[in-house]
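Comment thread on ticket #2218

A.B. wrote:
> Attaching the input chain for the structure job we discussed in standup.
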Amino acid sequence: MTSSDNAISLDRLYPTISSPVQDIHGVRNSDDENAQVLLRTLRHNHQHHHAFIGNRWFHNHAAHHVLAIYALGASPQRIEEAYRAQSSLTPTISSPESITDANFVEHLGKERRYYGAYVAYFSRHLMNHTPLETLQHFLFLPTGNYRPYCSEAGGNCKQPAMLGRLMSKLLHPFIHVAYGIEFALPGQVAEGLAQAAVQKNDQAIFLPPRAFTEPGNPTGSALAFMERTNTLSLTSPPEYKPHARPTFAYHQRILEDAIFAVQPPKRYVQQYPAIMKAVGPAIKALVCEWEAGWLKDARSSADIEARLTDMVEEVAWGNALWFGVGGWTSRGDTGRGINADLYVMHLVTSSIFLLTLVMPGSSSQQLSLEQRLLLLRTYLAVSTATYISRGCAKSPLSINAFYAATQIYLQRPLSSASNPTPDKREDPWLPIISTAVAHPDEHLPKTVRALAAFAARWGTRPAGYFTGGLLHSETLDGTLFLRIAGLVVDRFVQEIQGETNGWDNVSGDFP
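C.D. wrote:
> Ran it. Output below, let me know if you need it in another format.
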């Protein structure tokens, strides 16, 4: 951290803890002691720890971990214990110079040395602007993404590309910022934007500069669509046919189209760039087609908002299908219940924040409709590229077989260390949540929290609700999330061949 950052009161960066936006059945967070312990850990982490760990720049997940278990009802003691267990965190690193408006772009992408300076810069901005205003300024305005003279200046001219940077590095900056928005923590937002600032922009194909400068560009900017809808009346009667439910036809296209059956490199750090080069334009075109299908014949902004609710639902369910059903289908013959791919898992833990940032009516203050459409489309494109980069598009989604194999999670609650013989009448989510809270793994509670939040919102969807697009989608119902959570938690509480199992496909170059 720089000295200017130290001058900003931690009490202003981490003033209070707002209740989690996403309700989870049976979880309460009304105890003030829980909130105070959580604030103390977040302030300590902000003041003393860098965003990255070690020379390979693994992310510091301490804040994500304690926020997730707090949202799952962890005790003050458990929150403190989970934070203290983060023994490998890197101390803060002094930056060579402060970041100002004048040199903001110059140091973008310089990971280690300038992270603290960017935290200080964004913290200062947040002292005079709300978190929402800050996101709009840095992530969605052309000034945060595009410098027009770069097109004439040659290859050494750097584009800000802040939205692209936010969605890079396996969505970690996006996740970090979104936690800050959900829990009303300006310091968390500052850290997440600083993480974005020091990343390379991996999303140039999805977010070219013209997406922020050419409203009529047909390549897919939300601006292009809004140019047409701006002429619609917000008060005109919604004389349109009811919008369709999610069909997951998009996901069937990913499975069926041979262009997406790409063999990725073995090393993780090479996978995403290789997929972007090979099929990035095809992914972008398919996402634009998906959005156009949803918004076809929209008659008003209110109509678009209603459709956006279902668009978010389709993306969230789709990411859960990719991770859960896809992971079960590709589990192989090793005896594991699911191939719990560490990288695809991030598509689940990040998608919960669509409910906060994109879902209509999730907050009294929201990004504009235009900005939320842009964010959702970009998120879907990044999720798709990540999924394909793991070689998953070549595997089917065996929905019927998955449902037959996971029926057990509906018939009896999962045992836990605190309750090895649960009552069959017990809510099956309770032992899953308690196991996730108690387990030392930092990603498990984030995964369980997302799945439990989806179950709270969509758990009553009956079989047959989704039809027509994805093979056997008529089998899907609201129990999907419980089934996936049960499989994942089983991977952490069971032993196969004498070893405790966790996430699969973990490599030494994890970001």
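A.B. wrote:
> Thanks. Noting for the ticket: The first helix runs from residue 3 to 6.
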